[in-house]
Amino acid sequence: MSEMPTDPVALIKKGEFEAAEAILEPALRADPNARALRIAYAESLAMQLQFDRAIEQCLRLLRNPALSLFERITILEQLASCATQVNDPAIVRPFLTLLDELTRSPYASDRCWPPRILRQAGYLDEARAAFAAILREFPGDPFASFILGEVMMELGDPAGLPLSLSYSSRALARAHQPGVQPIEKLWEDEPLDGKAVAVLSWGGHGDFFQLAGHVAQLKRLGARHLTAVAMARYGKLLMSAGFDEVVPAVEIDAIIARSDHWTTTFGLMRADFNGGGARKPSGYMSPPPSAIADGLTARMRAKAAGRPCLGLYWHSDQHQGQMKSVPLARLVPLLARRDVHWVILQRGFGLRRLIEAGLDGDVTIADDDLPFDDAGALVARLDGMVSICAWPFHLAGALGTRAWLLAGRALAARHLNSDGHSHLYPDCATVVRQPTMGDWPGVVARMNRELDAFVAGFAPPNSDTGDG
């Protein structure tokens, strides 16, 4: 096979799924047995929310006896994530025998793979029992503890939180991230009075927006200086949450050297869990000044003509983002409403699909590369935010903007199995969840009812009530 002009895997990582598909289809016609290309093809389809086609590719791959163990795991993860979107998780079960060799591994992390696939397919009770059994055989294993904690929280059990904190423990770092940072400085609840703490960006942008809500408690515990090692594109937002400085990742070694402790964004949860304090309510961030947001606000209010301006975000380009993304076609009943004005914060593939479908007429579209500080200034001026579990939802909660989470039945652990009330942002957010697995029409129907009530009570900005 001749060398391809562009690496499709690199295109997928950049969110250019359609371009990857265009390269992979002729390549697979030329070489139908190229397993790596077919795995990438399945991913490009899944990320475009073409679940039936992605499942077809996964099933074809899983019939190949030459698959390596890594390939089997990768394909089963993809199959499980797509199966939840079409409400057919049982399709995964016959293939779990392909991981039987891992059930005899001397390593707990290997043993975790079969129940991790079950968890991804939505079999949470079964996965919980399997992880508990692994921990009986490997007492205290940090990786198994972490995943068991996550599954417990996905089932709505807050007792999983202390177990999930194993993700930011020295034991896990030694076993799975040796030498990444000076492990002896990783914060594990030591007294912070007078200490300098560096917080390393770990995970997505939304993770930092959410977990910055614990910064105030670090200060109450006595930390004298808090440094966020993160993107400058949301440095002003992090400073408003209580950080003393925000520095780029290139300075990480120097920051760690001069700090007493370091932790990750997820390690920030230790502050409130063990510190005895209550996390700040929603609105622990403040929007920075932004001329860009000023201009977007003027445009959206003019187009809205008195209607409420609501942000919208529905697709994640991140790895496994297909599990929480809503197909654009399902959103048409929301986009068709004429009593709200939609402000599109969507980027990448989702935005391209909106424009290709001709649904970008009566909306305001934020720039595809809008810096997060400016996005925060815009979100604070919205009347509400409708989003999947991604950075716009967490940014809205951090700013105290009214928000609705479009949620699947398979919901991230942080939400504690919520439906309706959001324990993350109790002052301003509502979880609008699938009635059954894969039922996005059910979510949209409920969201429309939420909007009916919201619009009925809406008073435009600068009205006599001053309510917006």
Question: What would your notes on this structure say?
Answer:
The strands form 2 sheets. A 7-stranded mixed β-sheet has the order 7-6-5-8-9-11-10. Strands 3-2-1-4 form a 4-stranded parallel β-sheet, with helices on both faces. It has helices spanning 8-13, 17-30, 35-47, 51-62, 69-85, 108-111, 113-120, 124-137, 142-154, 161-164, 170-176, 205-211, 215-220, 235-241, 252-258, 269-275, 291-304, 332-335, 348-356, 372-379, 391-399, 440-456; strands spanning 196-200, 225-229, 245-247, 261-264, 309-313, 341-344, 363-365, 384-387, 403-407, 420-421, 429-433. The longest helix is centred in the N-terminal third of the chain and has 17 residues, at 69-85. The chain folds into 3 domains: 8-167, Serine Threonine Protein Phosphatase 5, Tetratricopeptide repeat, CATH 1.25.40.10; 190-275, Rossmann fold, CATH 3.40.50.720; 291-456, Glycogen Phosphorylase B (Rossmann fold). The protein is built from 22 helices and 11 strands. The chain is of the alpha/beta class and 468 residues long. Helix 2 packs antiparallel against helix 3, helix 3 packs parallel to helix 5 and helix 4 (51-62) packs antiparallel against helix 5 (69-85). It is globular, with a radius of gyration of 23 Å. This is TPR repeat-containing protein.
